[in-house]
């Protein structure tokens, strides 16, 4: 396999994982884009979409294909996997994120690291934990399911792609929109998919310029904030009400190790084909 084809396949695989982050509870697609080395270029492209359009379009084409594929794959099979091995699956994705944290840490310090950056990381870590805890305690009755609901759901997904570490699936679960959304996607219901995509695209286009501005003027601060969000969103999905004694616990540990290995491998491929 030549370098060009290998690089295309790697971006496709990354897209699948990023797509899974949009649909899997507790995982942030934006955070996965950041740790896989795609987030910054994606934001710059969206903020200046006419600049180097052809090169960027073909660069992100396999990512987009993989992202859409990841969303549909997980929308169809997620309920099955959660019924069979919910806790082990969550630990696998926790491992994936942990395996990518060293690369994200190096990226955050690429332009220098000071005490103010570490303070930002800690502030965002505890701020995100407090926010997610507040949201988890504030779930009310399910909102009506209509076109505006799916636009809102798309906006939440789009927001998580712009703000790494923000788990859109968690918010959708809290709002009791997650199950009907995944069912609509799996059934190829255009009444769900079209407004959902419209909300996601509109949110991304509206916020991408803001994130591009932050990259230019507060790179280190931004990435240390991202690390705080990534750690917080990962801690929030750690299964605590589970008996880890016996085979179930061993499977959780094995799943986490496999996830760490996969995350580290993906980051190694990013360095190789950068």
Description:
The structure is a single chain. With 274 residues, the protein is an all-alpha fold. Helices cover 80% and strands 0% of the residues. It has helices at 3-23, 29-35, 39-47, 53-108, 115-137, 147-162, 168-174, 178-186, 190-217, 219-235, 247-272. Helix 1 packs antiparallel against helix 2 (29-35), helix 4 (53-108) packs antiparallel against helix 8 and helix 4 packs across helix 10. The model has no long low-confidence stretch (mean pLDDT 79).
Summary tags:
274 residues, mainly alpha, 80% helix
Shape estimate: globular
Average pLDDT, all residues? 79
Which sequence of SSEs, written as H and E, runs from N to C? HHHHHHHHHHH
Major sheet: size, sense and barrel closure? none
Spans of 5+ residues with little confidence (pLDDT < 50)? none
Helix content: over 70%
Radius of gyration over C-alpha positions, nearest whole angstrom: 18 Å
The class by helix and strand makeup works out as mainly alpha
Helix-strand layout with pairing:
Layout: H1 3-23, H2 29-35, H3 39-47, H4 53-108, H5 115-137, H6 147-162, H7 168-174, H8 178-186, H9 190-217, H10 219-235, H11 247-272
Helix pairs in contact: 1-2, 1-4, 2-6, 3-9, 4-8, 4-10, 4-11, 5-10, 6-7, 6-9
């Amino acid at each position: 396999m030549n370098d060009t084809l290998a690089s295309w396949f790697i971006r496709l695989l990354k897209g699948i994982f990023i797509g899974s982050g949009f649909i899997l509870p507790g995982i942030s697609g934006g955070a996965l884009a950041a740790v896989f080395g795609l987030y910054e270029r994606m934001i710059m492209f969206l903020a200046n979409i006419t600049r180097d359009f052809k090169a960027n379009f073909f660069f992100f084409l396999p990512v987009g294909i993989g992202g859409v594929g990841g969303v549909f794959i997980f929308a169809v099979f997620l309920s099955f996997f959660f019924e069979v091995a919910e806790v082990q699956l969550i630990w696998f994705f926790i491992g994936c994120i942990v395996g990518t944290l060293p690369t994200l840490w190096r990226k955050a310090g690429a332009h220098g690291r000071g005490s103010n950056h570490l303070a930002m990381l800690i502030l965002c870590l505890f701020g995100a934990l407090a926010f997610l805890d507040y949201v988890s305690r504030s779930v009310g009755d399910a909102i009506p399911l209509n076109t505006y609901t799916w636009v809102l759901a798309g906006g939440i997904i789009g927001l998580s792609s712009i703000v790494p570490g923000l788990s859109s699936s968690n918010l959708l679960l809290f709002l009791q929109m997650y199950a009907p959304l995944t069912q609509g996607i799996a059934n190829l219901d255009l009444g769900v998919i079209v407004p959902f995509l419209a909300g996601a695209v509109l949110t991304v286009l509206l916020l991408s310029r803001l994130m591009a501005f932050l990259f230019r003027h507060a790179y280190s601060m931004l990435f240390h904030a991202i690390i705080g969000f990534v750690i917080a969103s990962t801690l929030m999905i750690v299964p605590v009400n589970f008996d880890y004694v016996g085979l179930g616990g061993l499977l959780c540990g094995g799943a986490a190790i496999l996830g760490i290995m996969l995350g580290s491998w993906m980051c190694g491929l990013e360095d190789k084909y950068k």
